[in-house]
Structures are given as C-alpha cells and as structure tokens.
Hints:
Order of helices and strands: HHHHEEHEEHEHHEHEEEEHE
Largest sheet: 9 strands, mixed
Number of helices: 10
Shape: elongated
Structural class: alpha+beta
Low-confidence stretches: none
Mean pLDDT: 86
Distance between the termini: 44 Å
Strand content: 15-25%
Amino acid sequence: MQETASSLIALGLTPTEAAVYLAGLSYESVTVQDLVRSTKVKRPTIYHALSRLQERGLAAEKRVGERLRFYMSPPQNLHVLVEAQKQRVGAQEKLLQELLPSLSARQKRVKQDGVGVVHYSGIEGMKMVMDMAFYCKTKRWDVIAPFNNFLREYDSEYAKQYLQSRKYHGISARTLWENTKDGKPLSEEERSERNPRLMPWVMHGKFKSMMVLFDDKVAVFSPYDKLSAVLITSTELHALFASMFEGLWEFSERY
Length: 255
C-alpha cells in the first residue's frame, strides 16, 4: 500500500489525496466518515482532498438521501495526472527558452582570444552543462567517452534519465567509446539511438574526461572524482575538435 501511495505522489497527488483516493477505491461509493475511519485524517482535510480530486476528474459526488457519497474514478483515469505534468513541463520549457537570452547576456565569461570559457563545479554544475546540451539548436551531438565516465560513475538512475532526455529532445548522436572488453551487448534500438563506435585500442586508458560537441560548443566533463565541467564556446575550436572526431570516427569499429 505504501509503495502504491508513493507512486501516486510521484504522479502529482499530495500524500492526503493519495490516501483518500486509495481508501475510496475500496468502496463502490464512500462517505466522508468512511474515509475518516479508513485514513485517520481529519474531516476538513478529507473534504479539501476530495475537492482537489474532483477538480482533477478523479472523484465525483452524489447525494443519496440525506448523505453525500463520493465515487473514485477508475485507475485508468490517472493518465490525467501525466497529461497535466506534460503541460507543466511544456510551459516550463517555453519559459526557459524565453528566459535564456536575457540570462546569457548577464552571465560573466572568461574571454581568451575571443573564446568563451565557463567553468562549472560540482555534480549540479555538470548536470547544468548537460542540460544546456539538450537544448542545442542543431539537435546533434558528437560524443567521446571513456568507459568510466561521470554518467556511469555518478548514478544509474541519472544515466537512465540522461538517455530518456536525449530521446525526448530529439537529439541524434554519434558516440565514440573507449574500447573495452567490459562493454555490454546493445539491442538494435539502443544501437540506433546511441550510434556507438569503439575507438582504436591504442587509446584505451589514455583519457578520463567525456567530451560532447554541439552547436559551436565543446563541453568537457571531468571524471566523477573531480566533479567539474568546462563549456567552451568557439566556432573555431568546435571545428577543430569536430575534425578530430571525424578522423577518429573513420578509424573506429562498429559496436
């Protein structure tokens, strides 16, 4: 029951709303007094939760005689919570795109011969740079990654979210991986999405940072024990690294 309630909370219900909804599912129709007895929640709070559930289309009320009874919507209707979250995310993405130009104008950068260089510290800074890459204009990445990169070392759940976000934003990628005998088999779908090749064996163990090339930028992510990222904005440097990537790509073997 607790696990189910936690899942409902993750979908957007409050703990009280989740408890009331779960309790109400056990009845064909239910009174507030039934819910108070089942959940041990006070009547005013029950009424508030029922009101919120009705607003979301997850509960309905009907007067039967002198008593007001409530009906919980079928679990299939919970998709409205996901749709609501999608709408919120869409609105947030639109707001972010409108906000980025003004924020970028305020950001201080270290200028070196016309090159913009920004250093980010900590795991949150590394995530921020990765988020910037998700919003690239070209929707295309070229990635060079050692086997033990920060995505693999930090958190398997974040690594999964990273792949989901890349797919959600429509990013196509070419990925050069360090050649290792520990590589796991990939499905055809994974190969199509990640488009990996294995670099020549001579490069094994020669580098520890991960590099992502996008737009006119070069993002370099340190190994997890260093927790830092550098974002370089330069058309010339991006072109240089892109040409090096092309050379490696041609001499790398298909995964």
